[in-house]
Design goal:
Helix content of chain B: over 70%
Number of helices of chain A: 4
Number of helices of chain B: 10
Order of helices and strands of chain B: HHHHHEEHHHHH
Radius of gyration of chain A: 25 Å
Largest sheet of chain A: none
Number of strands of chain A: 0
Oligomer: heterodimer
Strand content of chain B: under 5%
Structural class of chain B: mainly alpha
Shape of chain A: rod-shaped
Shape of chain B: elongated
Strand order of the largest sheet of chain B: 1-2
Helix content of chain A: over 70%
Number of domains of chain B: 2
Chain lengths: 93, 293
């Protein structure tokens, strides 16, 4: 929003200042886009981190589940294995 | 937006220094965006951010260098030199690239966090498949992305027409195209100019401002949504942490008590870790571990 306003203001001036203000407005807009990129990185990093946390909790929950004792067909173990593989595949940005 | 003309005034030393500083910052921006978009997996998949965004910064860099050096260009009457025409064309690419980049960034963050955007619904970072047919999210996504590309293409065509002077200057006022802002068009007291050529030089940036304003509002809404989600996440983590702390306390306290209360307290020990894990399991699975799978 700040970059958009800066870009708008930069487009208003007379010919004496216009080359400078238009480029300055565009530069501020570029800066805000870079800040946006950094914030998106942070958001995605937090998402990956929290997803890992939830998966680890799910794996631990499955490990202590009473279903482990009730059937020995290894479904929960297989499920846990898949989840751990998914965690390993996640790229930490 | 700016371009050089033989009839333009030469920049003063102050302006030359300022344009050089702006050019230097654009160089830094190009390096930063190139580095970031090539080292992050989520950006490297998006062609417009990975390739075009650094190129737009380099285009701005070239434009500012040309303006800083415009004194000698005006002296030698070289405004129609082929190299400058390349810079004019590159400059026309700036607005379309910025338009696509801001849209792709907004789209990316909404998609990755599964927040609805422009009527599109996302699920676990993917396009939602709940609604079928013409109004399904994949169709809307296709329409919106190509609509932005189409608007960017129009901006590019208009920018090229204005910068390369393909319409030919019919009036002395047309020479101001690309060198004056909106104020000159609406100024009722001074020397007001209103020509198609000047308007065409301002329209691409106006389109970018309009679209950016709309997308900024979408991002604003997203931030409020993300803040609510953050509060929820913090609550879940706090509850898990709190239960863990209660478990540790319940484990320590019985051993510090007297013999009379020791047996009754230690009997309750297993309940606390169980309640902690149970709470986390319910939070993540939506059901008790006893009924899992």
């Amino acid at each position: 929003m700040f970059g958009t306003i800066a870009l708008s203001i930069g487009q208003l001036f007379y010919q004496k200042l216009y080359p400078l203000t238009s480029n300055l407005g565009m530069l501020i807009y570029t800066f805000t886009l870079m800040v946006l990129m950094r914030e998106i990185d942070r958001e995605i990093f937090n998402t990956v981190e929290f997803t890992d946390f939830l998966k680890q909790v799910a794996v631990k929950g499955n490990q202590i589940s009473v279903m482990n004792d009730m059937n020995g067909n290894g479904r929960i173990r297989d499920h846990n294995q898949r989840m751990l593989e998914e965690i390993d595949e996640e790229v930490i940005v | 937006m700016t371009f050089i003309d033989n009839s333009a005034e030469k920049p003063t030393p102050t302006f030359i220094i300022l344009f050089s500083i702006i050019a230097f910052f654009y160089l830094l921006c190009a390096l930063f965006t190139f580095h970031r978009s090539n080292t992050r997996r989520h950006y490297s998949r998006i062609y417009s951010i990975r390739i075009l965004f650094p190129l737009a910064c380099l285009s701005c860099l070239a434009e500012n260098i040309a303006i800083a050096a415009s004194g000698s260009i005006i002296d030698k009457k070289l405004s129609h030199h082929d190299l400058l025409k390349v810079i004019y064309v590159l400059q026309a690419f700036q607005v379309p690239i910025y338009l696509v980049v801001i849209f792709e960034l907004t789209y990316l963050v909404h998609k990755r966090r599964s927040v609805h955007f422009c009527g599109m619904f996302f699920d676990e970072g993917r396009l939602g498949r709940r609604v079928k047919g013409v109004f399904s999210t994949p169709v809307k996504s296709f329409v919106f992305r190509n609509l932005i590309r189409f608007i960017a293409l129009i901006s590019l065509v208009v920018g090229c027409l204005a910068n390369l002077d393909l319409l030919r200057d019919r009036d002395i006022k047309d020479e101001l195209a690309g060198r004056t802002g909106w104020w000159k068009l609406w100024d009722t007291e001074g020397d007001r100019v209103w020509t198609v050529h000047i308007l065409m030089s301002l329209v691409p940036t106006a389109i970018l401002i309009f679209c950016s304003f709309f997308l900024s509002i979408a991002l604003w809404r997203y931030v409020h949504f993300a803040y609510r989600i953050l509060l929820l996440i913090n609550y879940i983590v706090f509850v898990c942490w709190r239960n863990g702390v209660i478990h540790i306390h319940s484990f320590i306290i019985p051993h510090t008590n007297t013999t009379l209360t020791f047996s009754s307290c230690t009997d309750t020990d297993p309940i606390h870790p169980w309640s902690c894990i149970h709470h986390m399991h319910v939070s993540t699975h939506g059901s008790s571990p006893c009924s899992a799978q």
